[in-house]
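mind reviewing these C-alpha cells:
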Amino acid sequence: MKTENDKIEETLERENLKIPNLQTRISAYIIDDALLSLIVFATVYGDIAALKVENGILDGKALMGIILTLVPLSIVLVFIYHWLFITLYGSTLGKMLCKIRVVDTTMLDNPSYKQAAIRSFVRLISAMLYYLPFIAIFADPFRRGFHDKLAKTIALSLD
C-alpha cells in the first residue's frame, strides 16, 4: 500500500515538478513578512508619530493602546493575506517573486478556500510559537511544514 509520501513523490516525478530550495522559501517568507510589516506600520504610523514624550518619558498608556491595536490587526492581516492569495493565485507576493506556487497535493491546483484557511491558520500559529514548528520543513522530504501537511498542500518551484 502506498503512503502519502509515495503518492506525492510519484506525482512529482510524473509531472516533472520540483520542490523549491530552502533559500528560496526563506526569501519568499522574508518578502511577505516585510510587506505585511510595512502595511501594519503604515496603519499605525500616525498614532506612533503623535506619541508624546514629556520629561524624557513616553506616554505609556498611549503606547499600550497602539500595541493593543497592532497585535490583532497583524494577526487578522497575516491570516487574510495568506488565505486569499494562496486560494486565488496559489502564491503570495513573496512566493510570486521567488517563483513558488502552493498547490493541493491531489489535484495539483490552487488549494480550496478551506485548505488555504487551514494552511494560513496553522502557519500563523506556528509563527506565534517562535517559528519552532517550521523545523518540520527540514525533516520532511518535500519540505512541508505542519501548515502544508495539515492542509494537504505542497510548495512547488516554478523554475
In short: The first strand starts at residue 53 and ends at 54. The radius of gyration is 19 Å. The helical segments are 4-14, 22-49, 60-89, 93-97, 113-128, 136-139, 146-151.
